[in-house]
Amino acid sequence: MRAARLIAYRQPLELATVPDPEPDPDGVVIRVLACGVCRSDWHAWSGSDPDVALPMTPGHEYCGQVVAVGARVTRWRIGDRVIAPFILACGRCGDCAAGNQTICAEQVVPGFTCDGAFAEMIAVQHADANLTALPDTLAPEVAAALGCRVTTAWQALVGRAQVRPGEWLAVFGGGGVGISTLLLGRALGARVVVIDIDDDKLAYARTLGADAVVNAATGDAPEAVREITGGGAHVGIEALGVEATTVATMRSLRKLGRMVQIGMPAGDHSQMSLPMDVLYSGQLTVYGTRGMPSWRYPSLLNMIAGGHVDLGPLVTRKIALSQASDELAAFDRPAPPGVAVITDFVT
């Protein structure tokens, strides 16, 4: 099969022909229909993720069709169309039994701890515990985002912050996960402010229904958020993983506010200096989040099927496998609005 391989950090991916994968006894092989190019892939490409050992096939945000099934798999058959979360939990440990699949000690993460989906096919471990059926009404390029960006945003809003209708939601970062948070937050009844330093991304957020936008490059973003929201956001989402925006998110909250760290702090940002006086005096709650347990898929898919949220505008670029390197390099600077999804694995 054809795959894009990370051979050296910060270098173009190498397009290669590699052996077709075989399913584990509890796994399947799927033919990839679509795979997003995510900022987390950039962390792997840039060498800032310690879990990555080269060579590696990146790609963790994907959907596809089952083409081979392991002997112990009971839920899936050849021909099924499926969505996979980027954290593949074992399904057997105590954390999985308690519904906390994202902290499974035996988890597998394609594109980081094993080969990922920048390829025509991918082997998916622990299939019965992780996969969800891909609805016929959901386009593959949109469904791919349900492997990471959209599901991470859903878990942050519903599983961590428990955002309520009418609350103010401040989203720091207008990239893929930030825009996903905007769309889902509005569907949940929140009023949303999007903060970024790129005017194109802010204009895009406006077209998608943001109640307000703030350019952090031109003024004091937390002060602007507090003015817009009448005292501060109830919920703040940090969607970049850098110290400046983490601090700004904390400072934008009203007293008793809740913050969720979605952005992955890596490299130079793995250690941060935070305003603990703000946390103390504001009696804030700060959550970390990473991925989404697969049992939350039905609630999200039901919201989509019911017409309460349209994720189509999230995807602004459908690309070929050969263009993935350019999209990864684009994360070195403010990337274009929306997300890129690989849908052509031949050219």
From TrEMBL:
It holds the Pfam family ADH_N. Keywords: Metal-binding, Oxidoreductase, Zinc. SMART domains: PKS_ER. Its cofactor is Zn(2+). InterPro entries: ADH-like_C, ADH-like_N, ADH_Zn_CS, ER, GroES-like_sf, NAD(P)-bd_dom_sf, Zn_alcohol_dh. Residues 10-342 form the Enoyl reductase (ER) domain. Gene3D superfamilies: Medium-chain alcohol dehydrogenases, catalytic domain, NAD(P)-binding Rossmann-like Domain. Belongs to the zinc-containing alcohol dehydrogenase family. This is Zinc-dependent alcohol dehydrogenase family protein. It comes from Ruegeria sediminis.
